[in-house]
Write the structure tokens for this entry.
Amino acid sequence: MSRAETVRVRLGKDDEIRFVSHLGFMRAFERAVRRARIPVAYSGGYHPHPKISFATALGVGMTSEAEYLDMELDEAALGHLSTRDVLERLRLAAPPGMPVIAVCAADGRPTLASRIEWASYCVGVHDDVRHELKDAVLEFLSSDSAIAEVNTKSGQRRADIRPLVRDICWSSNGALECTLACGGRAHLRPQDLIAHLHSMQGRGGGPGQEYEPIGRFCIHRTGLYFTDREGGDLVSPMSVECRDLVMAGS
Amino acid sequence: MVNKDLLVTDILPNVSQPARYTGHELNAGAGYRADAEATLLLAFPDVYEVGMSYIGFKILYDIVNSNPAWAAERAFAPWPDMEAQMRQHGIPLYGLETGTPARHFDVLGFTLQYELTYSNVLSMLQLARIPAHADKRGEGDPIVIAGGPCASNPEPMAPFFDLVVVGDGEEAIAEIMSETAREKRQGAPRADIVSRLARIRGVYWPQARNHVERRIVTDLDSAEYPRKFVVPFLEAVHDRVALEVMRGCSRGCRFCQAGMIYRPVRERSMNNLCELAEALVGSSGYEELSLLSLSSADYTRIKDLISKLASEYGPQGVAVSLPSLRVDSFSIALARDVEKSRRTGLTFAPEAGTQRMRDIINKGVTEDDLMAAATDAFESGWDQIKLYFMIGLPFETLEDIDGIAALSRRVLQLGRQVAGARGKAGRARVNVSVSSFVPKPHTPFQWFPQNTREQLVQKQSYLKDRMRVRGLSASFHDVWASHLEAAFARGDRRLAPVIERARDLGCRFDGWSDQFRPGLWQQAFADLGLDSSMWANAEYGYSDTLPWDHIDMGVSRAFLVREARRAENGLTTPDCREADCSGCGVCRGDVRVRLAGAFAGNPSQGGGRA
């Protein structure tokens, strides 16, 4: 890893900290880095900040096994630490509910955040609700467009969400698995998809009625992806331009 | 255990800041176990982010959880949105660590930091399904104990507590836990456990109205201090390593309760502080290390300490900070050392606008001190200075209020000159914060009435008119809030039903200006046929029996009377660290001033803000 400046880390967010905000999650990781005595680089200026950048925020109330971040190391300290060292130190220092899943060396350019295009989720669904949603999922996938109410920072608006959904399927244990647009260019929140599927069944909130399925459905992020430049396939942030990948438990 | 599924699916998604209610922070204890010998729920009657900022709360939590036979959890006042959800869904008050309902703990310990949290104490007891009145509690109910600075006059809340701990809690909490464990083992009935605990030194038994002497830890180095802090995911108000460099302040400001009830000054040694800093920085990962005390610039080895900590932890990305500054050049030099940024502004507390009034309150700060400190601050690159003043002090005249405006303008003018030399005169700003004097028990001013609400409103508007200058901004504390604070600070047991009534009317979080509803408090007083001014505006005579006379904080009544008379005559009393003993009466036996080095204060330069 002597040539690397950036390490890429994959974290999880477990059930016990699902209500921690993205800001709180980031701050907790920064403190773990300091406890782990990992020589992270700091920004200059009056208020130095560790150079850590997360791929994308996770909604409050969701769990995840795919929170990625890039962390720039202090050049002076390079060469002494392997990605294995970083992984082990972080695992010991991380707070409860924040498993450190994998670490690799990365180029860090272009930024992680700008390359993320898709996110996959696994949504726990009650048996009775599953039957209602099954038809809606089929109808949704067979149509070319789907105008839905979506929540954005500036409030509710109507948008065609069909292009933002790459895939929906049912897992063997009855959970709904979906791959949705994620990132700055296009983004769909899984709870907006669920609310829309519900409304297709004549369920869910009427106009002006808040329908917030985040509590009743266990939404778990399973992956974040780049798009392969050639074939358009989904690729993991740890599979391209990365070296020295180490995983917890391996 | 409370119903966690219900919390996750129906409640937490619908409340603000749900992480207040979920626990599982780094370094949190394992919490309640049925086989623990004694269990404690530490209850803080304000919101999580406030409660998680108090060092006393962390100390007690750490002491109890360090003993493998005991278990402590934390509970904070739920914000009104969460309280409504808990009531609607039948969720009782619970400990954050395991979700165990408050009722299951042996001891429920409330921290009373501030009078305007009293309504929250009662709403928390109600949510806990514990009878509010101690005499209505029985077998199976936790023993409800209070501590903290407001325990120095517990009377307005006395009927609600089985016991009250007066003074330093480090030793008392351990004695309470081990006595409780012993009595439980012997199968003692609840009432017997309460009366056993009431015999512990420093414990007040409201039912017996016993005379009680404040507990004092003689040597802080050998007292327990956490090596680990619980690190919140939510940003606490003070979210940092707090290193208590000393306890107590003997500057002797006559309005300041903390300056009386935490005497004598007990400094930690440099070695102890460096060892604690090392452990706490390493176990928390915090980015800030704050030197905590009533006036940290007074710590006798403050320069050595700061340079040592800054050189050790600066390279690790940890900033050292100094929360309280004296009004002098020495403090500015310290601030220059620790504050890389000049953007946040500096705060000084001259407290009064004229020398006559500063002598009355024994705030040893002269106008020259303030001007010298302000010059240093502006010249060092700070463009903003914040000034703290009080109105409504004893013997105040209109001249003293004019003095606040005049002094503030002079500081601003100075800032314009200094900043003007750099071509940035317009950048200089002075923010003035004006609070209303609240007479507090165990101070030389305890006998004096607070100004009436009408007087305070008038004085505020008079001062406001004189502060309308570009670059000067003034903010004023809410008059009703200060008035209630005075009533409860100086109150007696007749206030208890008023607080209960206010809780029923919906008063909560009275210290929060967006939640405070003085109209409901007025109604609560009226419903009981009482008037809050009976306490806030009462003038007591030096020989009168006061509602808190049986609570002995160590400072003698004779000293307080002497200080009040000296105030009347405009006489100052020097700090005993640099002059003769002022005879406050607190030093007895092992209890004495303990300094880590030689005190080098300048007699004309006053202490930090309480």
In short: The first strand of chain B starts at residue 38 and ends at 44.
